[in-house]
Amino acid sequence: MNEDRITVKNALLKGDLFTKLSAVLMGVGIAGHRQIIKGAVVLLMEIAFLGFMVTTGFHNLSMMLSLGTEAQGKVWNEAKQIYEYSTGDNSQQILLAGVVTCFVIAGFIALWILQLQHSYKLQKMIEKGETVPSLGKDVKNLFDGNLHITLMALPCIGILIFNIVPLVYMITMAFTTYSKEDEHLVLFDWDGLHQFQRVLNMNGNIGRQFWHVLAWTIIWAVFATFLNYILGMILAMIINRKETKWKSFWRFCFVLSIAVPQFVSLMIMNIMLQPSGAVNVLLKNLGLIKESIPFWTNAMLARVTIIVINLWVGIPYTILQVTGILQNIPEDLYEAAKMDGAGPATIFFKITLPYMLFVTMPYLIASFVGNINNFNVIYLLSGGGPTYVGDTAGQTDLLVTWLYKLTIDQQYYNLGAVIGIMTFVILTVITLTTYRNSSSYKNEEAFM
Amino acid sequence: MEKKHQENSRSPRKRIINFLVHVLLAVLALIWVMPIVWIVLTSFRAEPGAYTNTFLPKSYTIQNYVKLLTDKNVLNFPRMFKNTLIIAICSCCISTSFVLSVSYSLSRMRFKMRKPYMNMAMILGLFPGFMTMIAQYFILKAMGLTEGASIRFGLIIVYSACTGLGFQISKGFFDTIPKAIDEAAVIDGATRWQIFTKITMPLSKPIIIYTIMTSFIAPWVDFIFAKVLCRANSDQFTVAIGLWNMLQKEYIYQWYTCFAAGAVLISVPIAILFLYLQRFYVEGMSGAVKG
Hints:
The complex is a heterodimer.
Chain A: H1 8-14, H2 17-21, H3 28-32, H4 36-66, E1 73-77, E2 82-86, H5 91-127, H6 135-141, H7 147-173, H8 194-200, H9 205-240, H10 247-259, H11 262-272, H12 278-285, H13 299-328, H14 331-339, H15 344-372, H16 375-381, H17 399-409, H18 413-437, H19 439-442
Antiparallel strand pairs in A: 1-2
Helix pairs in contact in A: 1-5, 4-5, 5-7, 7-18, 8-9, 9-13, 9-15, 10-13, 11-16, 15-18, 17-18
Chain B: H1 2-10, H2 12-43, H3 63-70, H4 77-108, H5 114-126, H6 129-142, H7 151-160, H8 168-175, H9 179-187, H10 192-203, H11 205-221, H12 224-230, H13 239-246, H14 252-290
Helix pairs in contact in B: 2-14, 3-14, 4-7, 4-8, 4-11, 7-12, 8-14, 9-10, 11-14, 13-14
């Protein structure tokens, strides 16, 4: 069994002349096994790759070691009476070119493996006396058995270029000095784990802010996720009660707020809660308060306000999502509980909630992740403020909004990248542990 | 059973509870609807400025809408609208085809990279979106897509390139279409491509509409990618950046009521689309949860 498998090792050991030759001259094995056009294309790709490597690739890689050393020069030209600028190195471009080159090399290695395996496969087909599929047949198969390749090629290329490459590029930045601090915006160096140490060190300025922001991020995510979930569920149950009238009208009122684009409604909220905004005016006119309530300038109040407004934003979503599932709860569970004399609270906590948690665990985890990365609510409501002097992070900043401020406003790219990586690590840990401990993972059987 | 239930609801205690529930719902509904009503009223407010000392406007006018749609000197709303429309149409076409292709493949085909792809999508989803945003900007810059009119292409790419990762809801929908239909078609000699285009797609109208609408709406409501990419190129602004700018210090006094008007203009079509799409959203959600 093992001998027959199509692996690189088998191809190299047991391949015929063509297959072995294709370890060096890619595509020869495929062409030699009667798929000439395909083989030629692969060979051309190898030539193109080698051409790329010789002209720019090796240079890119070697530059990546130092990330450039030459600063932009300025020389006074006596004859022309002007300063002449020499083009210096731009570390950010060098790093990008290096990362892209690494991806090209990885792609080339993948191609090398695939063509070797394919050549060996064709060789065995010929040995067994089977007919090798023609090019036309291969193309036809792209619309039948291999349709997924046709359908997913472009989306995957998009994801590779505009998600994976940027992500890797950004991750590499975390290990450099690319930052406005000490003027490293044009030329920067590798910096090892220094930035990580800064972020994790509780005594430093950045580290202190990091732990603050992290704590608030987690508190926020817990409150935002579970308050929305529980209150939304209770509201959905109230609307769905047999005795409640005009059910669809109530639902419409709540759903209407989702229909307004979120950034519009959040900006409206921000304006309404300003010191001279509509809410303060209303409360003053009613004679309830004399001084404006400092919704956005008092740290504690800003936090509470954000969580409350997020209820306004989030509860309608919960209502939409849980209504259908709530109606699926087996009626006999309720009947049995009532027979045993359980009150509404007991029924909710012993039957409804466990059932809903079981069914909607994946959704809950997703919304927790979404809340940790919830940029819009914080950025548009409080802008992360209030911010104390000397800090880059405000009192209501989440890791994401801080990341935004560090990169876009402050141009501390390396610190921003570190924060991004930390967010990812934290999310991974939380997601994996909750998911593995959840009953829907442990026990995939139906809810009992 | 029915009789007993009726008797119950007639009992005084039940009646009081019932009344209280309705009062509660009315108060909550008022809280939820009030900001929306307020912004609609503000969009017709005649007094200028962001803040007034009354909750409701004193006098009404449609001048805000007129100014928004005709004043082209400072914040050119019609041009922003045109920019956004072009971007939305293009990115909608690309992302819809991406999402449907990927989710069909993951739902119906079985191939070696299927599980790894789904895991990869989950892992990529855990990174904050802004991490890629900065680097995307540098990549687009290296491609020369960050200057002048090419910003538009940059934005289209940003909105649509990675949509292959958001397959969950439509995959959940495809999962609910019985496999037996595919198998019958295979016996009749149909290729996978024919099954995809002639059988699955016609059966999937709700999810197609849902995907088209959500990807069409995205460029209208995103302001952060657009802001990073457009920077100071005001002729490339999208509606969202325009509205956001109207609330900045230098414009807010002049433009606040116009902002309200713009917000209403943008929200009405989106709200109609959304209310129409709601049921597909719920269907998609419950499908995804089941799967």
